[in-house]
Design brief:
With 233 residues, this protein is mostly helical. The protein contains five helices and eight strands, in the order αββββαβαββαβα.
């Protein structure tokens, strides 16, 4: 079968779907859903697991924090630069930011930061120093930019090829018109030649008919004279 990323994946014989690759797009949608329902049902805090309507979302941690746990989150020095917003203050662009949040490694639950050029897959820092040690790796943003350029070049090549084919089709269309026009001219010339030939034959026929009529008239006159002379004798 295919996953959302269009990669081939074989379902194990035991039918365990938990081994499927993480669907980051679906996870982002599941994160955004509680924000829209928080006024009626509240959201589950990522720290204490309690469901509260008065909560905030940390775009850096990609998790919800209730008002009781939020001071603990903000009190950690490394969290000073985190972007935290109360759910009641959410705007449309904030929902979009949740959907655009960076994907996490399903194995280590860390942000995907690198691209392994050997395995052609995105990896986190832990993957880079363990499963992909010694492999050529680049920063994920650079890999994305490189892929964009490759796709752009491929699209441009396809566009040029398509334009060349359009030009060839147009040229063939012009050739078809020229062939049709030439065929029309030839048919017209043949028709004119045939009409002239028929007219010449018709004139020749009429001339021969006139000569035959003239000869026949002369012969009849001569025969008439002879007949008359014989009768007189």
């Amino acid at each position: 079968m295919y996953t959302a990323c269009r990669r081939n994946f074989t379902i194990p014989g035991n039918g365990d779907l938990n081994t499927l690759p993480t669907n980051f797009r679906l996870n982002s949608l599941l994160d955004a859903l509680p924000v829209t329902e928080c006024k009626t049902s509240g959201v589950k805090c990522g720290n204490c697991d309690k469901t509260r309507q008065q909560s905030a979302y940390c775009f850096t941690c990609c998790s919800f924090w209730c008002d009781d746990c939020l001071p603990f989150h903000n009190g950690i020095r490394t969290n000073k630069e985190h972007h935290v917003l109360a759910l009641k203050d959410f705007r449309d662009e904030d929902f979009e930011n949740i959907l655009k949040q960076p994907p996490f490694c399903a194995k280590h639950e860390e942000k995907l930061k690198f691209f392994c050029q050997v395995c052609e897959t995105t990896i986190c820092y832990s993957c880079a120093v363990t499963d992909h040690e010694g492999h050529a790796k680049i920063v994920l943003e650079d890999a994305a930019q490189e892929r964009k350029l490759r796709i752009f070049r491929a699209v441009e090549v396809k566009k040029r090829k398509a334009q060349n084919k359009v030009t060839r089709i147009a040229k063939l269309g012009e050739n078809c018109i020229q062939v049709q026009e030439e065929a029309g001219r030839i048919k017209s010339d043949i028709q004119q030649f045939t009409d002239n030939l028929i007219a010449a034959i018709e004139a020749k026929k009429n001339k021969i008919f006139d000569e035959v009529e003239k000869k026949a008239k002369q012969c009849l006159e001569q025969l008439g004279d002879k007949s008359q002379k014989i009768e007189e004798k």
